Amino acid sequence: MPLWAARFSKETDATVNDFNSSIAFDSRLYAQDIRGSMAHARMLARQGIITGADAGAIIDGLDGILADIERGALVFDPAAEDIHMFIEQELTARIGDAGKRLHTARSRNDQVAVDIRLYLNDALEALLAQIEGFIAVICTQAEAHCDTIMSGYTHLQRAQPIVFGHHLMAYAFMLLRDRERLVEARRRMMRQNPLGSGALAGTTYPIDRHFTSAALGFDGPAPNSLDGVSDRDFCLEIASALAILMTHLSRFSEEIILWCSWEFKYIELDDAFATGSSIMPQKKNPDIAELVRGKTGRVSGNLVALLTVMKGLPLAYNKDMQEDKEAVFDSLDTVKMCLAAFTPMLETMTVLKDNMRAAAAKGFINATDCADYLVKKGMPFRDAYKITGELVAQCIASAQTLESLPLDAYKAKSGLFDADIYTAISLETCLSTRISYGGPGPDSVRAQVTLAREALAAGDHKNR
Ligand code: ARG
């Protein structure tokens, strides 16, 4: 019979047992559950609610359980309803009556609320390090390609010249914001400790919530017991930050996929990070990028699932909230897996500079610079725009480029054109003269890399 079955006269139906059980997915909270219980037991003893001897036995017992789980000597019982009951039952089996005193002044409702926070706090520590590693790889590649000319795009049409490093750094800044969002969500999550909220209405025992808060790394106790047990904002915030991060990875993936295609051929993935086809011998597919793009769907889905679970819940705890864990765990696991595959894929890719340069020479991406040339000689921009448009049309009709169009053709459109037009529209000039802050030229990209590296070094997420 479960621990809660004192008033029941029948066994739970087996199907209901399975349906109700969460141990299959909440067993991963074991270390945090034990940490929370130890702090609770210490507090109970300090406050004279249980004896020091009982607290000592509880802590030793929990230490033994932790060690046994970690070395594989204690396996989770699938019949246990959840990790909290499993550990409490195991403790009582090992130490007897003292084990039965652990749950004094506590409910699984505040227990689970504290466990998930502690778990996510630990998991985010590792994930943030992974994100930082990814950003560092982007910076290294960007630095190596701050002179690699490519076309920038709008509407997927060649637009204006940039260097490849500039394109890559756009993702570095997205990921820096993702990191900041997670750091902030983590900080907010660890502000308020739900432990001591009880089932919903606190407790009659003289507990010290400030003690457990400090012991578990929280700033202080949650000020309202109903909110303490019902709040899952931190799950929503983390799921949301992870969904946004995946959206960034998905856009990056989409570009990798395009760049690998024969239509672009801007990059070549390392053989270790691509796959073949079982029927077409020539194929080399960017599966990692496609899977990352595909898995973005489940991470966005997890956010929507969590929002939907929470939206109709009356205060305080409802069993619906057991559904929080699978969604947020899946988002974390998915992002971890995606970054683990994506980072080395990016690190080992070969950039086919000549192909990028050749494509950049095609789409009239220096047309804006041609118009600017006239503007700098005194022509109003709209007139310069019109003349350049006509020159582009002329080039298309005669299969020429702005670079190969004879000077006579230029002069026929405006007397302001001179031989220096050819230097003005060379892609190198177009890039070196784009001096606006945040621009796409080599110096700007070097400055961006420095900025991103400084942000990485400065943002010590361990200092909450
Ligand atoms: N397994 C439960 C959960 O994850 C723990 C809390 C259960 N509380 C309760 N009163 N049934 O939400």
- Principal-axes geometry comes out as elongated
Radius of gyration, rounded?
30 Å
* Average pLDDT for all residues: 95
CATH superfamily placement of the largest domain: Fumarase/aspartase (Central domain)
* Strand-residue proportion: under 5%
Strand order of the largest sheet: 1-2
What's the tally of helices?
20
Tell me the distance between the termini. Answer: 43 Å
The tally of beta strands, per DSSP, is: 6
CATH class of the largest domain: Mainly Alpha
Hetero compounds? arginine
The biggest sheet, with number of strands, parallel, antiparallel or mixed sense and barrel status, is: 2 strands, antiparallel
Give a description of the structure.
By secondary structure, the protein is mainly α. It has 3 domains: 16-104, Fumarase C, Chain B, domain 1 (Orthogonal Bundle); 109-358, Fumarase C, Chain A, domain 2 (Up-down Bundle); 367-425, Fumarase/aspartase (C-terminal domain) (Ribonucleotide Reductase Protein R1, domain 1), CATH 1.10.40.30. Helices cover 62% and strands 5% of the residues. The protein contains 20 helices and 6 strands. The protein has helices at 14-20, 23-26, 30-46, 52-70, 83-95, 97-101, 108-144, 164-189, 209-216, 225-230, 233-260, 287-311, 324-348, 353-360, 367-376, 381-397, 407-413, 421-424, 427-432, 442-458, and strands at residues 149-154, 157-163, 192-193, 220-221, 267-268, 350-351. It has a two-stranded antiparallel ribbon with strand order 1-2. It has a two-stranded parallel ribbon with strand order 3-4. α15 crosses α16 (381-397). The two termini are 43 Å apart. The mean pLDDT is 95. Bound molecules: arginine (ARG).
